[in-house]
């Protein structure tokens, strides 16, 4: 269709989110939407003197139709597109680091249900968030769009990405690994890459299928690790790995089937990175354990707590020069030896490298790190409007003796023997809570304080604790 015949439609505000653009196909996100988002991204990239844009997609069923229109929109804005095809998100980020241009768009619904899709966007080396995403919406509203005749070139990035990892990561001994790709995009590369690293690989749900017929591709939820745990125990594997729908997050289970939570994984990675880089800055988000700060200091590193959100963490890494970062959601970012983007596949390789050098098992290794009693993430449904006003009201709450407040992202209250957090989710209308303490009694005490303060500022809240 010629661009002259196309009129910019209006778009639902709901698809322009904190870290990406995301919607339900075909309700809030259509091929037409994808075309115009391509035009807006292309226009913005050109405004930042970056005419080259890499494009990839995950394995969702709506992907082929949407990516075709996204690429058309980018080309019609005057950009030159490198189409890297069906890849995990880290391979697209890699393309945006090593190909001609430093811009990239990943068409992915990540770990959302199968009818979702969306766009993770990098422009001139910067992962977009918040007002930068709104600026794309403003371009569309104001018809502030360039026109041109761009080109489209198909590029095989997977082999290059795989080769770069196998050049960097070396295993000291062969490991037996179960790999659960959850029928997501990691399936096109993860099993083959781990074999290239000299692992014995037992694949689980590595066929890409956008229906996600086996379990949801979200390793952050324990119910999605049940199959992996069973297979690890059955096969006597050294470790189990699970990737989310687009491969930028990794979940880990030990040989006994114990889940290694991402903040504990970061303890191991921090020890490894700081051993080679004294005084290195290590970033973690507000949802992570209080045990990270003293441990990183003990290793000789500099801990920095920051806001949750992959885009926000990457910005902070650039600003501070941090060599490693991690989020409780499972995003791990290596700048040491890698590019600083969140990469579940590379993180898995680095874990295997460390395990291969250890005489102990994965279970024994992780048992050497401090461990508190903690709750899973608690989500409380509120309205989009009230979630921020509740948090604002809590800034002035009475948190009791010895309370140390962190308010960079919600309200985190650290005490001598534990902590609690309440923050507004940036992606859904919920308040996110988490608690941790060294005893059950202290955990309950902190929960009670949070319960009282939440009820004080929002008496109608239904609290499950």
UniProtKB/TrEMBL annotation:
The keyword Kinase does not apply. The keyword Magnesium applies. Residues 15-144, 160-257, 262-368 form the Alpha-D-phosphohexomutase alpha/beta/alpha domain. Monomer. Pathway: Nucleotide-sugar biosynthesis; GDP-alpha-D-mannose biosynthesis; alpha-D-mannose 1-phosphate from D-fructose 6-phosphate: step 2/2; Bacterial outer membrane biogenesis; lipopolysaccharide biosynthesis. Transmembrane segments: none annotated. GO terms for molecular function: magnesium ion binding; phosphoglucomutase activity; phosphomannomutase activity. It comes from Pseudomonas simiae. Its EC number is 5.4.2.2, 5.4.2.8. Belongs to the phosphohexose mutase family. Its cofactor is Mg(2+). Residues 377-449 form the Alpha-D-phosphohexomutase C-terminal domain. This is Phosphomannomutase/phosphoglucomutase. Pfam families: PGM_PMM_I (PF02878), PGM_PMM_II (PF02879), PGM_PMM_III (PF02880), PGM_PMM_IV (PF00408). One of its GO terms (biological process) is lipopolysaccharide biosynthetic process. Keywords: Alginate biosynthesis, Isomerase, Lipopolysaccharide biosynthesis, Magnesium, Metal-binding, Multifunctional enzyme, Phosphoprotein. InterPro entries: A-D-PHexomutase_a/b/a-I, A-D-PHexomutase_a/b/a-I/II/III, A-D-PHexomutase_a/b/a-II, A-D-PHexomutase_a/b/a-III, A-D-PHexomutase_C, A-D-PHexomutase_C_sf, A-D-PHexomutase_CS, Alpha-D-phosphohexomutase_SF. It catalyses: alpha-D-glucose 1-phosphate = alpha-D-glucose 6-phosphate; alpha-D-mannose 1-phosphate = D-mannose 6-phosphate.
